[in-house]
């Protein structure tokens, strides 16, 4: 997950594993942030390790927040054939009218833009934070094996729903990040999980951490 405080808004990108593990609550305590401070939650996708932190039982953890995700992602996980007791259904029910869809390539909250990055899931979405000339793309699960997938972007993971689309999206983002020198962050990149992309041998790339 990522917490963005920008232009007076507290935005949470993904919500981690909740009580199943992760550092969401300790991070909130360290930063002296209250759940009520979060006005928007942006979801890269609806895998459990990204949405479990949104609910406590059947109650929303962030009562004042809108939860936004791509329409394709919502439709895939909330398909009527899926059990109503599934985690995505529980999240949608907990947030009710505040569980909403977004469009790609739009400013979804001030200074944060949605970026199509489909493949890992049906509607996997990245979010690009823009401040003047500085750009940071919060790219969710665009890679799950950093060393392998930067060097060989065409290598998709077992958990990628559509391996071909995932590979295309991954190379597109890496190519742009390298050319435009924009920072990228990935959920499964080792801490701090943020860095820059550089061209490497054999038409591959290398990830250079900010640390």
Structural class: alpha/beta
Q: What's the CATH topology label?
A: Metallo-beta-lactamase, Chain A
Average pLDDT rating:
95
Principal-axes shape call: globular
Low-confidence stretches: none
β-strand amount: 25-35%
List the helices and strands in order. EEHEHEEEHHEEEEEHHEEE
CATH class: Alpha Beta
CATH superfamily: Ribonuclease Z/Hydroxyacylglutathione hydrolase-like
Biggest pleated sheet: 7 strands, mixed
Quote the distance from N terminus to C terminus.
18 Å
Q: How helical, in percent, are the residues?
A: 10-25%
Treating each run of at least 4 consecutive H or I residues as one helix, how many helices?
6
Going across the biggest sheet, name each strand in turn: 8-9-10-11-12-13-14
GO molecular function: hydrolase activity; metal ion binding
Pfam families: Lactamase_B (PF00753)
Protein name: Putative twin-arginine translocation pathway signal
Family: Belongs to the metallo-beta-lactamase superfamily.
